[in-house]
């Protein structure tokens, strides 16, 4: 494989790795926002008149999310 072709492939690989990392960060941020919204919804649904043990359950994400 020519040096030029190898350099081009390495450059594309580097770009793809950065792009995936940026997408991962964005997805983690969105997952955090979703979790916060779910918690807020649960708090609002369990107002002062709510019965204990409300059927609304929030699914917690594993730590890596």
User: What fraction of residues sit in β-strands?
Assistant: under 5%
Q: Total number of helical segments? A: 1
Compute the number of strand runs: 0
Name the helicity range.
Answer: 55-70%
Question: Secondary-structure element order, as H and E?
Answer: H
- The rounded Rg comes to 22 Å
Poorly predicted runs are: none
Main β-sheet, in a few words? none
Compute the average pLDDT: 83
Class computed from helices, strands and strand pairing: mainly alpha
| Cα shape | rod-shaped
* First and last CA, distance: 40 Å
Describe the structure.
- The chain has 65 residues and is mostly helical.
- It has one helix and no strands.
- The chain has one helix at 3-45.
- The chain starts with a helix and ends in a 20-residue tail after the last helix.
Quick overview:
The chain is mainly α and 65 residues long. 66% of the residues lie in helices and 0% in strands. The model has no long low-confidence stretch (mean pLDDT 83).
């Amino acid at each position: 494989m020519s040096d030029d072709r190898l350099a081009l492939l390495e450059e594309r690989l580097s770009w793809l790795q950065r792009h995936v990392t940026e997408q991962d960060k964005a997805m983690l941020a969105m997952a955090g926002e979703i979790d916060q919204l779910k918690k807020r919804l649960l708090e609002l649904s369990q107002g002062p008149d709510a019965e204990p043990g409300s059927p609304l359950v929030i699914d917690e994400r594993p730590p890596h999310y």
